[in-house]
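Changelog excerpt

This revision adds worked examples to the README so contributors can see how folded entries look when concatenated. The first example is reproduced verbatim below.
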Amino acid sequence: MKYFKFTLSLFSLLLLFNCTSSPDIDNEIPELNLPPSIGVISTVEITEVTMSSALSGGVISSDGGSPITAKGIVWGINPNPTIALSTKTSEGSGTDGFTSQLAELESNKIYYVRAYATNINGTAYGNQVSFKTLIDPNDLPVVSTAPVTEITTSTVKTGGTVTNSGVSPVTTKGIVWSLAPEPTLDVNAGFTSNGFGLGNFVSEIANLSPSTTYYVRAYATNSYGTAYGSDEAFTTQALLYSPGTGVTDIDGTTYSSVILNGKEWATKNLNVSKYRNGDAIPQVQDATEWANLTTGAWCYYSYQTSNGTMYGKLYNWYAVNDARGLAPAGWHVSTNADWNSLIEFLGGAEVAGGLMKEIGTTHWQNPNVGAVNTSGFTALPGGNCLANGSFGSIGTIGYWWSTDSYNPTSAWCAGLYHNTKSITRTPTDKKQGFSIRIVKN
């Protein structure tokens, strides 16, 4: 019993001694367990891109505390490529910057590129850059540009021919134009779409500015890209007129006008139903009645009111010659002197008609030869009412009276035709119904 008490006391003393002699663990500095560090690298922008190659590289700004053992660039067709890919370069070790060539690339394809740097702790990647390789011309269609024709102040006609589709079918074709040479579909330019596949196509360009040089090319597109024909330049025609002030007739109809060679012409046919003093001009709606007239009258083509909306009224020459006057105050029906002055100003009878006719085939029958309307006259093919009261030539011919008489039964008129750019001046039966243009005094 005494032995047990002694042993217990000795154990307690030893325990107290050990506790009081141990260092203060609260004052110890714990050991930090930092993660391993990889390097810091950035990717150089892509340069010298071809159909099958490009240049990039990397700049290493930190080795992460351990030597760089491998570096280079890695690329692929999917974002964030890694060195697990075989498409990479090896540019040695160390922290020096480097340039690498990407090789054996496919044409017309997007690639993603990252620089990399490896140390004992792992691999760091630079920022991702992307680029697209150039198109192989042999993959694209073959297209040629047609000559530019029928140039007016605001329109031209051109087109092209696709002779080869390339490696895939042609999905669209047309023309593209701009104020700068070699226009493309990728810039702010005008373009047309003229179907798909091989063969010829024709395009009309509208809403151009007068006296302006444009550049136009045919194009054809397949799944690999767009090919272009030769670059063709053309200059739109200049306007030969300046805007006039216009005039309003006794019925309240307003006519715009243009000034040509010092004379101000209305730009649409007369459509008045009263003489200047307010007296009514008789309307005729029967062929027999028309054929028997020797006094002023008017009718609509084919006696249809709807024709008057576009072409105006057709008057016999007796209405033109009536002392009460068809034109508003300060204006007159065109005279031989007016027509001759205009024709001479526009270059003579052989070409003047084309400069006077409305452009296109909305109203004129195809072909509307030489129609450029640089005069602003905007002549329409209103046809005529024959002396017997029948009608003809709407869409193909326009006739306009002159105030000048030729003999007791005939008076002078001017004629424009869809199939020529010339203008004719000839006497004709005063009983016929023609259009009228008025001129400012």
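The second example, added in the same revision:
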Amino acid sequence: MKTDVLSGVWSSLPNSALILDQENLVVSINPMAEQFINISEKKIKGNNIEENLFFNFSLSETLTKVRTSNSKVFMTSVKVTLSNYSVFDCNIQFSPIIDFFNYVLIIIDVRDIDNRIGLYSKINDTKKSFSGMTEMLSHEIKNPLAGIIGAAQLLSMKLSKRDTELTDLIVEESRRIENLLKNFEKFDHPLIAKKTSENIHDILSKAKRISSYSLASNMKIIEVYDPSLPNVWGNFDQLLQVFLNLLKNAAEASTKKIGVIEIRTFFELGIRVKNSNGENVPVPLTIEIKDNGSGFPSEILSTAFEPFVSGKKNGTGLGLALVSQIINEHNGWINLESYPGSTVVTVSLPVAREESN
């Protein structure tokens, strides 16, 4: 009975927990640690912990201190890096295990996920309504947009088939803008749109192609994709708008003649977001967009996704606000980390329904 209770406690711990032997080899990890590290207990057992987790402090010195003093060590706000290069802000507790010589229990409290999701929820709860302004903008944009479409179609009649790729793109993107404006007019209401199973790499590739012609023509865009990723559950046009906005911001932040943008995709277990029904929905499909630009102003970093907040001289502050709302409607979450010379935007989205069963 006692063994069953202890096993149940180990499986029910809300934080990631690992047990190391005297040689710093993994003896056991609980289910939360399996999700966090994205590895099974069977596979990690017997490995040196630093083969799968990397710390911004000397782990060996800390473990030696725990063993020699036979006392607990608690560390706050340390960086833990996973093998897929994801970095998390954590609190870590080291405890010697009584009756097991030089064995150490490590409990990892991943503060980063909670803080970022909490901040994201707060941003979405405090959005400002500006429907009157958006209706006016929409009306003013639609008129010249119709002229652009007509001009592109007339121009295409005089071009060879090979040269009509750009005019076709103009017409296609103008039609998409018309559809986006319909949603934009209702910015203070949910962006209700049909969601289907979509290949996230198709969306990203199109965003890159469009950006390369215009928004980020002066940027070198590097794609580092995980081809094994399942489909995302979402709306193609809305997600395309998200990544076009993010690529545009990355390009505008560049202070170099040829800047660099890296788009990376990977699968990350352990992150869940509450949907409108209060259910915890896993969002393992992760997209990172990293640039080497000037960085986001630190004084407005925490409010970057609110309407009218912008770090640009002539910015409206609507781009990231719309991005935030679209991701929220997709039951996903978005995070922005920025330092001088580097900005990373991380978007996490749910797997398509038929693939999550």
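Reviewer comment on example two: Confidence is low (pLDDT under 50) at residues 125-131, 313-317. The chain is about 40% helix and 25% strand.
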